[in-house]
Design goal:
Strand content: 15-25%
Number of strands: 21
Largest sheet: 7 strands, mixed
Structural class: alpha+beta
Radius of gyration: 20 Å
Oligomer: single chain
Shape: globular
Strand order of the largest sheet: 13-8-1-2-3-14-20
Length: about 400
């Protein structure tokens, strides 16, 4: 059997953000659209077969009701995992970085939680260098992987597969995770191409980064394919050059991707929706319960009326690991109120910066004809109770209303 090439693990690499759970709107909307055209049965059967080919069973996952073409009842959580696997296109582009013997790593891990009514969407990014406890896990072949009191999160997929990543994150967050999906390098490029690209913003002095080959001036630009992959891999050309800065830049990409998919221009464009659905079917490996277009439509319908301010993109707060300055551990004092708010479906108020490591800066353009008002010495009003749980300043993030630009620097 031919082995999928794997990227080398140089210190500068984390691959993709590859969107957010909103990607599932593609298949969900496709099911609804083609059903209205009278060919839904054929399309749904084809997508079910293709999406389900590599479906993974999740160990100890919560039981979920059978799929139905209506909004998913109650809360749910999806773990989206980006691995460093290279396909045909990325192998041609990345060359020697796609040849290695160190296994497949889950470098991007996004926990997406959607609350019961009134709906709120929380997307929590977990750093690839996070140390956490890993439980005993059963692999797909039936063998058992022993647990570990402390392991790096991006080694868990190689250790015991997608199901073990879900078990580890569920234990960390206290959130039951019923669905999961995995995406590789080629999938990042193909999904971005399918929607016609994503407009991103480059701030600061622009991005010049030798590791990704990016040399872009400040300003707006539309990225797709290989450019999109490299943009969400860039690290040293933004902020303080850390992986935590890169996560914030990936969140810029995710939020702009989400708004592109949610736009009426996308959801009313049946050919584009079908194209996106086909790409997802061919490039995403889902968990068993997610490998059904009707289920995807259910989850998509649960998202359709969520206000943009209730879409939160958050970064897990961390501190340097005592045992290794190159690793991080969860800042429990800051993280637990966030996890509790997510579990109980409460609104959250972000008080930290969009990036605590300079990965992005706020995009607040001012028209020359309308200069900004002078700063006031008056204290800011205290948050009202309607603002929900006030998150620690250690938690960086944005909501879907807030636009950011890369904190670019030229190196």
């Amino acid at each position: 059997m031919t082995r999928t090439p794997v990227a080398q693990h140089a210190p500068h690499r984390t691959p993709s953000a590859w969107g957010s759970a909103l990607r599932m709107l593609g298949i969900g909307a496709a099911v609804v659209a083609v059903s209205a055209l009278g060919i839904g049965g054929f399309i749904a059967a084809d997508l079910t077969l293709r999406v389900g080919q590599d479906a993974v069973d999740l160990e100890d996952a919560p039981k979920v009701a059978p799929p139905a073409l209506a909004a998913y009842p109650g809360e749910f959580a999806v773990l989206l995992v980006g691995t460093d696997e290279c396909g045909e296109v990325s192998t041609q582009k990345l060359g020697e970085r796609c040849v290695g013997e160190d296994g497949i790593r889950n470098d991007v891990n996004l926990l997406v939680h959607v609350s019961a009514e009134p709906r709120k969407v929380s997307v929590v990014s977990l750093p690839r260098d996070l140390m956490l406890e890993v439980p005993e896990c059963t692999r797909e072949d039936g063998s058992v992987a022993s647990g570990a009191s402390s392991a790096v999160i991006n080694t868990v997929f190689e250790r015991a597969g997608l199901s073990c990543v879900i078990k580890s994150v569920a234990a960390l967050s206290g959130i039951d995770i019923g669905f999961a999906a995995k995406l590789s390098f080629d999938g990042v490029m193909k999904i971005t191409d399918a929607i016609g690209g994503v407009q991103i913003c480059v701030g600061g002095t622009g991005i010049r980064d030798r590791d990704t080959g990016i040399d872009w001036p400040p300003g707006l630009r539309t990225v797709s394919g290989y450019d999109a992959l490299q943009f969400i891999r860039v690290r040293k050309g933004i902020g303080d050059g850390s992986d935590l800065a890169r996560i914030s830049n990936q969140q810029q990409y995710m939020s702009r991707l989400a708004k592109t998919i949610l736009s009426s221009e996308t959801l009313t464009d049946v050919p584009k929706v079908l194209r996106l659905s086909n790409v997802v079917a061919d490039n995403v490996d889902p968990s068993r319960e997610l490998a059904n277009p009707v289920r995807l439509a259910q989850l998509a319908l649960a998202l359709k009326d969520v206000p943009f301010e209730e879409f939160k993109f958050l970064q897990l707060p961390t501190v340097e690991a005592p045992s290794d300055p190159n690793r991080v551990v969860t800042d429990d004092g800051a993280a637990e109120p966030m996890w509790q708010a997510i579990r109980t479906g409460e609104s959250m108020q972000i008080t930290g910066e969009a990036s605590n490591h300079g990965g992005v800066v706020a995009d607040d353009p001012v028209s020359p004809a309308e200069p900004s008002a002078p700063a006031s010495d008056a204290p800011s009003p205290a948050p009202s109770v309607t603002d929900g749980v006030v998150l620690s300043e250690q938690i960086s993030g944005i909501d879907l209303n807030q636009e950011t630009c890369s904190g670019g620097r030229r190196r």
